[in-house]
Amino acid sequence: MSGIAIIMMVLFIVIIWGGFVTALVSLSNNPDHSSGDLGNHPNTTDEDLAALEQQ
The whole model's pTM is what? Predict the structure, then answer.
């Protein structure tokens, strides 16, 4: 492999793994149960949603 090919490979590995790590950090700081359409809206507990599903 040429030098430029190795540099490009390393660059794109850093970009891809950096995006992966950034996504994991972001998800750990903003878990699914506190973000999204409903977020921390009242009446969105598991029990309330299960009761609505049974109706």
Answer: 0.51
